[in-house]
Design brief:
With 232 residues, this protein is α/β, with parallel strands linked by helices. It is built from eight helices and 15 strands.
């Protein structure tokens, strides 16, 4: 059975009482939403777009590793685009949730983003064999953009020849496949220059906050962490 979970959220703003909001955040609909793509003052909510991130997903993507970092990045005013490898309007996740995408991958494959992020889950196998993903990753690596992968998704980087020799981590099941080509670490999240990797669903929030730090700095990371009551 497929499920659509409609999640409603208040704006990331100190004036909740003065703002009425009726659009769901995700179906499980993690579409672009003004309140997470905006930065707010104490009195007014003003949209101030800054960094951009592309999340590449496919059927079987792990929903925690998608939704948590997307939410956190949008709280930090990062414009996030979720794009499905099959160009579908909805992607079916590992636990049979339907998450609404923001764009067709074929429509954004030539765009430049500040970060390209790949969630884990069984989808890593099909993503690792997709030429278009390799092209996107290579172009962004050449341009010095942030490349990020969580859980089994570092295997995708390995298959496409990304960041060889750098420090990274992954879900334990793909460790033996990739450790000979990288400086493998057992840390929950690893940053090596513009490469960010993390271990799995339990580290998804830390992964998202680390991406905020790499893209926008520690001050923004601390602000978002405090807002979600994440202990630092």
């Amino acid at each position: 059975m497929l499920h659509k979970l409609l999640v409603f959220a208040k704006p990331y703003c100190s004036v909740y009482s003065s703002i009425k909001f009726h659009k769901p955040l995700f179906a499980l609909d993690v579409q672009q939403s003004n309140f997470f793509n905006s930065k707010y003052s104490s009195n007014t909510c003003i949209e101030m777009a800054t960094k951009t991130a592309l999340f590449i997903v496919a059927e079987g993507s792990e929903e925690l590793e998608l939704v948590a970092p997307v939410d956190i990045l949008r709280r930090a005013n990062v414009t996030v685009t979720i794009a499905d490898l099959a160009d579908s309007e909805y992607v079916k996740t590992k636990s049979n949730l339907l998450i609404k995408t923001d764009a067709k991958l074929s429509d954004v494959k030539n765009n430049k983003f500040d970060a390209v992020v790949i969630p884990g889950g069984p989808s890593y196998k099909v993503i690792s064999s997709a030429d278009v993903v390799g092209q996107i990753l290579l172009e962004h690596e050449k341009s010095g953009k942030v490349i990020a992968a969580i859980c089994a998704a570092p295997f995708v980087l390995f298959k496409h020849g990304i960041a060889k020799g750098k420090s990274l981590t992954s879900y334990p099941t793909v460790k033996s496949d990739i450790e000979g080509f990288y400086q493998y670490k057992e840390d929950s999240t690893v940053v090596d220059g513009n490469l960010v990797t993390s271990r799995g669903p339990a580290t998804a929030v830390e992964f998202g906050l680390t991406l905020v730090e790499v893209l926008l700095g520690n001050e923004e990371k601390v602000k978002v962490a405090k807002g979600i009551l994440y202990p630092l």
